[in-house]
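TL;DR need structure tokens for one chain.
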Amino acid sequence: MPYHEFEVSKVIPERKQHAVMKGAGEDLTSCLPLGYLNTIPGSISERGCAYCGAKHVIGTPMKDVIHISHGPVGCTYDTWQTKRYISDNDNFQLKYTFATDVKEKHIVFGAEKLLKQNIVEAFKAFPDTKRMTIYQTCATALIGDDIDAIAQEVMEEMPGTDIFVCNSPGFAGPSQSGGHHKINIAWINQKVGTLEPEITSDYVINYVGEYNIQGDQEVMTDYFKRMGIQVLSTFTGNGSYDDLRGMHRAHLNVLECARSAEYICDELRERYGIPRLDIDGFGFKPLADSLRKIGLFFGIEERAEAIIQEEIARWQPELDWYKERLRGKKVCLWPGGSKLWHWAHAIQEEMGVKVVSVYTKFGHQGDMEKGVSRCGEGALAIDDPNELEGLEALDMLKPDVIFTGKRPGEMAKKVNVPYLNAHAYHNGPYKGFEGWVRFARDIYNAIHSPIHKLSLIDISKDEIDAGKGFQTRRMISDEGLPEEIRKSTELREYTGKYDSVSALREKTYPEFPRAEAGTEAVAE
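>> reply
TL;DR here they are.
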């Protein structure tokens, strides 16, 4: 068994079973780390809790809803605005967060009265919003507040309102994945089937496990609509509360993130007979195969093929450009859950990089199995790592870039390893054909950034070249560039025709007019 023991974790011998190094000829049964288990005391986990998994990951992307947490204000603050779950109603769910702000006195005497008061106040403050989700937290779960009874009482007193209750306190599972399960099952038990949707197509789907990070959902639904498919609901990115009540009338559930939303798909199949089809919106080949599968299900393969051919013809040359410049670069793929296997194979095959490590904070054995299987020999797989283990892994692997969340990403920058945000993206969306090229561009920029090169200088002891500050200028000149790039027609056009920053700017961004002296430029 190729277990890997971190030096920093030798005082916690159980941690040895949570990291493995994929050896030569290893099958999956002998090189899987343990996963989705209770956090080992003393390991200082960076996991999220079950409440976080329910509210922050699944619930909050729902756009036309007042999301209120019944508990201390810190729980709400910690799950507010740290992901870019955008929506087409002016991002209501990102602008506002609501909490009952439970104090010590409420723990002693009960907080049901406080909850009702807050619900009523929230509806009155936003009279156009008639839908609400209430999230249980550890504190109010422990004192036994009956949230369901309060919600029912308010709905009777305020006709036209509808409230969904999610009982998912932080201790409801070993990680945030436990919260994913809780809210999936609660939604189908309480709300699915309570509203009849309007059907406008012969091909109707629920798009499940999609959270519209920086517009991912909009990219994918555009493909579906071009195929003539009606997207009945999106669970839950840019999703409407009432649309999601009508999920039972879809012909097919198209599942993107299996780790967070397979539960509701399986229940919809069991209760309503709706089949489940797993897809992947990341990478040219996985996306093309996914669109073909959906087309095959509905018998409209030619529509899918037309989109695929059009998009690949447009974007393949750009992806190939980045692949040549990223080939052989080492990557640590350290996301939360399913992206470790959504991305592992695709970035190696289509971008030329080498994945030297995968990890997950809340994934199950199935996630790690798929992730490890898509990595090469020598890859380090870690379950539920902490900061010290992450630093040790970076020192050992010496990657060129890591894809991870903000907390470990900021830690990596301190040891001069650039990172891309795997959860909320840097410059997304990353789904779709164009999005995949955008992802490659972000990787290229992270690795080759002149600013990052400057960050490697230790100003306390290194001799500083006065020309270092002009690195960017040299990048757009002929000096020091490889011959194949120096001969580039596009570069010659830029460096030969445009001899000033302002002229180059006007060529690149004509929509932003240059200000005249004494005036300010205003973007139309």
